[in-house]
Design goal:
Blueprint lengths: L1 H17 L13 H6 L14 E7 H4 L8 E8 L2 E9 L6 H4 L2 H10 L13 E7 L2 E9 L5 E8 L1 H22 L1
Antiparallel strand pairs: 1-2, 2-3, 3-6, 4-5, 5-6
Length: 179
């Protein structure tokens, strides 16, 4: 009887582990120096805004157990603080990544089910989840060329507010500069 109980417990734990969300190896709010000391990624990607930097890596390198093939993880820093993490489908003109529903299924599995109609491949729109002091936005929107911009944005309400204020300030400055 003890053997059967142990086997059941091991199965439950392994199933729970295999269906847990990706460990991004960095907590939101972490400082850039601490993030860089973890040697998760290389140098930041070139950016267009001062004090806003992006570090990118393939999701398979960070969380191989999640089967996130052709998905990138983007770590977003504002003023040396990790303010958001994005998972981005690396689509081409055929939308081959989004057609596999990898990111959509990851969102549903880890952050909750949402209505994608009877044909999830035709879903277009947003899903916003606010839970456990996390602010999560799933987006699946085609651009002007028909390539689907599919991503999951993860932040906290406080950090997201900082980012939105920064972006508003940048837009205001750009408008001022153009006059």
């Amino acid at each position: 009887m003890k053997l059967i109980t142990k086997i059941i417990l091991i199965l439950i734990l392994s199933i729970t582990y295999s269906y847990s969300a990706c460990n991004f190896k960095a907590e939101l709010g972490i400082k850039r120096a601490e993030f860089e000391s973890k040697e998760i990624v290389g140098a930041p990607l070139p950016g267009e805004y001062e004090n806003l930097d992006f570090y990118g890596i393939l999701a398979e390198d960070i969380c191989p157990e999640q089967n996130l093939k052709d998905i990138a993880i983007e770590y977003k820093f504002l003023n040396d603080e990790l303010i958001a993490i994005n998972l981005i489908a690396l689509n081409d003109e055929t939308n081959s990544v989004s057609e596999k529903l990898t990111l959509m299924n990851y969102m549903k599995k880890n952050y909750g089910q949402f209505d994608t109609t009877q044909n999830p491949k035709s879903f277009t729109g947003y899903e916003i989840v606010d839970k456990s002091n996390k602010f999560i936005v799933y987006q699946r929107i085609p651009n002007d060329q028909g390539v689907i911009d599919e991503q999951i944005y993860i932040s906290t309400p406080k950090l997201d507010e900082k980012l939105m204020k920064y972006m508003q300030d940048m837009e205001m400055q750009l408008m001022k500069d153009s006059q």
